[in-house]
Amino acid sequence: MWQSPEEVFLSKDEIVVLTCDIFQVTQRINHFDNSLGSWTIANEESDFDACGIFRITYLLKSKKRFQIAISDDFDEISALMKEIESKVVPVLSKLPESEAPTYLFNTFSSRSKSQFIPHPKTVDFRSPFNFPRAEKLIHHCSGSYFSGTIPNRGTLFLSINYLSFLPSFSSLSDKFSVPWIKVVSVKRKLTVALGGYILLSTYKNSYRFTITSRVEETFSIIQRLADLGARRLLNNDAYTTTQRDPFRLSSSKFSTRQLLSRLDSFSRSEAYRNEFHLPATEVLDCEATGHLCTPFDKGERAGRIFVSENFLAFSNQAGPFLKLVVPLCDVKAVDVQISKTNSKYSDFVLSARDTIFMFVKVNDKGGLIDRLRYIVRGSSTSENNSDEVVVAEEALWSMEISNSSSSTSNSPVEKLGVQVEESVASKVDEVVPSTLNSTVAHSARFFNEYPLEHSTNIRTEAEKISAWEMYFSVYGKDRAMYIVDELEELVLKGLPAKLRGRLWLLLSGAQNDLCANPGYYEDIVRQTSGRSNSVLLEIERDLHRSLPEHPAYHTPEGIAALRRVLTAYAFRNPNVGYCQAMNMVTGILLLYCSEEEAFWLLAAVCERLLPDYYDSQVVGVRVDQAVLCQLVANLLPALLSRPTSAPSTTSTARSSSSSAVSLESSTLESFVSSLFRRSSPKANGGTSTDGFTIDPNGNTGVELVNLVTLSWFLTLFLNAMPLRCAVFVIDYFFFGGAKVIFQLALELLRLHLPIFSTSLQREEISDTLLHLSHFFNRLSTESSSPNIRYTLTSPELSLRLSFPGSQERPVTVEQLLKSARLNFGETVTFERIEELRMACRLRVIHALSDSSVREAIRFLQPQLSARPEDLTAVCFSFKEHYVTSRYYRIQQVQPAVQYGQVSSLNRPSYDMHRIDADQFCSLFRSQAPSTWIHLALPLFRLLDADSDNLINMRDYAWLLLLIASSDYRGKLRLLFTAHSPDYLLPEDRAGFWHRGSPTSSLSCDNSSPIVEFAEELTEETAVDCTVKDEISTLNSSSAPECSIRTDSFLSLNARYTGPAVLEEPPALTKPCFIDLLKTINFILLNDRKGEHDLLHALARLGQQCQMTVTRRSNIGAAKIETQPEWKIEFKEFLNSVYAIPELVLAFSQWIALASRIASNEDDLPPTA
């Protein structure tokens, strides 16, 4: 049957049987009818790749091969080949070579759509792997898995949580699945023979696959799914990655094709938002190619048009740089005209409030214009009247000419001194109209009252104002202005101080958030006023450390403004809360912005421009440090090696080294090794400092780069440069994004390469830090600053290091930024950074996740006194099950009002991951001895001392280690207590003695509302208690914190002996005691059918306990003259056990827990 053309590679098991021009029929020589390749349906919603015995392909001049037909019948494939020979080849021979690919694609696509395809049989992909029904397939493809050097052909399944491989022949190899959360590396290796292979690695194994079709698409999907899986490892009770998960809580509603489309849409939307600095809620709806009419040069620019719910954006594809973002809320109408010469092209005009935008030759295949008209709801279609379009275009040009002529006569540079200053002040509101709703009390803008020392003089400020006024007059002002190369040059010169705050809003895209959320900041400030928690206490400690050199933060007004902005954002985004360095960034924002503007700029920095930098685990900056080391290995390889002699001072970033490739391949490993280690630092002879494990045998250059540059990224150079210079960097950062920080960091490393090389030789870093400090202090914002010993070489505009005694021109921040752009602008692009982030993020997150578990193990080892290998196995399996089992469960983010308690800085690491009853039962049944699993629910109730349906890692580890230990007293105490009526409920007895325990009757819900990331919970109606009640609860020393058993937190060396109730177990009634005897019988005799001694020992135990209770009851009855209720105390029960050595010996049996968990690791499916 025909298929739509798709690129493929020929495999080794195919031979060519027919040929006609560029077309070939190939046959699979190792094909059998029972292979998985004959399947065509993965489940009820998705189609498999058809993999017949024969297929037809054609080969283009570009060496790309496309598959167009498949069949299991040679006669059928021969008939299709004859049809090609008679109808397609004659037409193809007459076409120009450039038109052949398009003709072939359209021809066979139409044949594929028009043919009748019988309904194929259905196969459920979940059954072979025992996946739950909630697991959804994203993609599948035919390929081979290499076991050593032997390829095993089969089908590769990519689902939400797993990568799975099902071989075609079960006799050759077994099926397997790999959870995405275990994948630490995904690479693609190109080879000539097989078209390349995909190498996927975990900590324990490596998997090599070859893909026969859609290799690029499959590799991209694997990368994205592995990235999503790694991000889930960051989840804990106070942090969620839901915002970055396109499948969360919706996978059950979509088919496989829809899920794949959702994944692709998520990636494209993220790239769209990053490119145009749009809010995090924008989702790309459609895009098309077309031309934008540019009135400033009366030309047309070819590019791509993007449309989302609130914006239309344009980016040119060739020629001079041009971008445009049009808020659709400002668009009044969309006028459309369909081309008369070619119906597939259309022209349309957007009529905004004060201007129009015209797009021509739009190839609208995806319905972009219809989507625009639906959003605007005011469009009028004009298919035959082209005069309106011409008139609109002429009106736009006439309006631009009028604006240009009027603007040239009003320059603020005509007068100097007082006249210039008055002109500047009067032009501020004209150039960038205000959109503020903030009150006078929250106006901030402390620069007006406390200007920076040595800031730009009045003449320079006036010249900048004039240049910006000219730009606005030509290219438009406000959000819908044209962004061209001239704008970048203006930004590099430094923004005018009077306009800096509002231009920051414009360049960063924060103004879109501000306009879309009027009054939001004032509301959140009002709602959070007077509240207190651990996060706010941390903010309070850092307030007076925020830009202490600036006088604004020596005043109550400055401190209060800083407190309000940081507090408001901590409650807006509990994932971030507060992180050190946010205070410095916010401090510089408040110098030039109102509080509301600073709040939205801070949101843009934390959520879009530097994602994950300031969250509770600072993942983003760790990843970017790894990316920087990769770039240094490629662009400045000498920095990561110890040279025998100092390098030349004239070397630039464009020079390469023969060892650059090998350095780049090993740099990520070296970085992760220096950051975290999976093994114990003491075992490796390393030392630990502030969470970083330093390897004495590691790459000193990598460690030096990390040490020097970490603060640059976190504070945007605010703690390195003087404020008057750092604001220039922030100006450019809001324009260019994260790539600006990378380029500037690389330029500084390149410039000081001799200094770094000397430090590496001497193994002394103090001189390097001192030299950098002197360099930053001598940076200037003016070209007239004297005594700067760095210069700009001409004509390359690349900075180089100068030596004392030389007469050189001074260096300004503008020159430094231009030199960074020149040397690294072409290589360090946003696309390259994102590519490296994707590659580095997996290992960094895995190292961070492992480090958190290792920290928990370090806490628990002295408390539980367990064998290290057993405790390690339990803790890692607990964390993995926590992540996998909660994926399909409704995410419950703690309300902002409780966030400070839930994410308390004093909360131990083992308490950050807690599981409920269902999760506990699933994990316990897979790891505990089979004779104990019927006690899962009573044991969970016993551990859940505060009745919140949650237990932490320490609770579970203590239980499992006790069961596996030889401590017979502890086991008997545990069993005796678990059979108390408080824990063994009547409904549990229905299936009590069956292997499969009943479903948990405990609710998985807690008191926290169900919300998603960034949803606000600051309103009083969203919580169960009022602000007044909450504050009194927080300030009360006797009130426990929400969902946290602070009384159970022990000191590091204190021994944990389990729940407090175990110290004095309650007495058991006769029915409960009979249940206890049944349990002991089941535990001891289930696997020992021939142990008659144990059977007699159990009978003796029952008799002795009965005699003990009877003797005590008789004594009591004589005193009170009534028969007391039958009850047995734990001490009486234990004394009876002591008298029976067979029972003591049986309960003293030890279980190798680590090996048991390892053997059952692959048998634990996620809880749906």
UniProtKB/TrEMBL annotation:
<dbReference type="InterPro" id="IPR004182">
    <property type="entry name" value="GRAM"/>
</dbReference>
<dbReference type="GO" id="GO:0031267">
    <property type="term" value="F:small GTPase binding"/>
</dbReference>
<dbReference type="InterPro" id="IPR011993">
    <property type="entry name" value="PH-like_dom_sf"/>
</dbReference>
<dbReference type="InterPro" id="IPR035969">
    <property type="entry name" value="Rab-GAP_TBC_sf"/>
</dbReference>
<dbReference type="Pfam" id="PF00566">
    <property type="entry name" value="RabGAP-TBC"/>
</dbReference>
<dbReference type="Pfam" id="PF02893">
    <property type="entry name" value="GRAM"/>
</dbReference>
<feature type="domain" description="Rab-GAP TBC">
    <location>
        <begin position="494"/>
        <end position="737"/>
    </location>
</feature>
<dbReference type="GO" id="GO:0005096">
    <property type="term" value="F:GTPase activator activity"/>
</dbReference>
<dbReference type="InterPro" id="IPR050302">
    <property type="entry name" value="Rab_GAP_TBC_domain"/>
</dbReference>
<protein>
    <recommendedName>
        <fullName>Rab-GAP TBC domain-containing protein</fullName>
    </recommendedName>
</protein>
<dbReference type="InterPro" id="IPR000195">
    <property type="entry name" value="Rab-GAP-TBC_dom"/>
</dbReference>
<dbReference type="InterPro" id="IPR018247">
    <property type="entry name" value="EF_Hand_1_Ca_BS"/>
</dbReference>
